Amino acid sequence: MVLFRSLSSLVALSALAFLSLSASASPYLRKASSTTTLELANIAAADRARVQALQAGGSSSINATNAVMIYTANVGVGSPPTDYALLVDTGSSYTWIGANKTWTKTNTSQDSGKLSFGGYDASKITGDISYEPITPTYPASTYWGVSQSISYGHTPILNEAAGIVDTGTTLILIATDAFDKYQSATGATLDQNTGLLQISLDQYNQLSSLYFTIGGVAYELTPNGQIWPRSLNSAIGGTTDSIYMVVADSGSTSGSGLDFTNGYCFLERFYSVYDTTNSRVGFATTKYTNATSN
Q: Which of 59, 118, 121, 145 has the maximal Cβ count within 10 Å?
């Protein structure tokens, strides 16, 4: 989900216009459920389609019901969803779920992350939070957009450019010219079934870290952080023993104003703060930054 910074899109997140939202997630060891029927085939293509829609701009709407004294909207939580009537209230500090209906835990439910409103949880970070102002570059400026550069080891692959931090994107998408440099440097080949880059075990053992430099601070994505969780290979149509990478082609060249999308494969490794009041995004390392669970 992209957290738009306009008032109309902050309805579900209530009073974020005056507060901040921080998020942490952990790349825990995961297993594909034997009962789930969901298969995330060609996840890279789905993420690319999302980014292209964001580049095109625009907004989406849902119907709200006039209940005389309040407005409500129907929302589904989980997959398969449990439906709730959501009270549209920009004066509330929280989003409550299940006040009159028990939430049903589903196959997609995992206690692996935390959202904090109005501040951040210092117990979740291992260093200081460094902030970067929202970029003025369009269209990244209309989302949680920042400026960053990316290097593979000591080799630059993307000069400082504008892009977004997006919890609704799974992978890490980078401009086509940067992606080509990354693929060449890693020796990876494109797997047609998953749409992801694939490497051998020997190539994995020789991987260098990726460095995302934001506001003068370099955030290291280790080799393990660059690969898809092998325990979930079957969920994306992959084979059990293969090694797939989470960096994918955005489908557009650099200079588009949205040259990268740091999805949850990046965000699982770092603590992130979305500060609406000061129009900035913050990052910090966590105990999961150097995890080897993938």
A: 145
Q: Round to whole Å and give the CA distance between 157 and 181.
A: 6
Least-confidence region, from 79-88, 218-227, 241-250, 285-294: 79-88
Instruction: Find the helix or strand (DSSP H, E) in which 49 lies.
Output: helix 43-56
Cα gap 72→70, rounded to integer Å: 7
pLDDT(72) > 90: no
Question: CA dihedral defined by 24, 154, 192, 254, rounded to 10 degrees?
Answer: 80
**Other CB atoms within 10 A of residue 119 CB:** 12
Q: In the predicted model, is pLDDT for residue 253 greater than 50?
A: yes
Separation between Cα atoms, residue 159 and residue 255, nearest integer Å: 10
* Residues labelled as active-site residues: 89, 166
Rounded to whole angstroms, how far apart are CA atoms 190 and 199?
9
Structure tokens belonging to residue 88: 């549209």
- C-alpha distance across the termini of the chain, in Å: 23
- Mean pLDDT in the chain? 83
Provide φ and ψ at 273, rounded to 5°. -125, 130
Position 97, amino acid = I
Residue 145 pairs in a beta bridge with 164
pLDDT at 194 over 80: yes
- Round to whole Å and give the CA distance between 221 and 265: 10
Average pLDDT over residues 14-32: 54
Q: Among residues 145, 128, 147, 166, which one has the least CA distance to residue 284?
A: 128
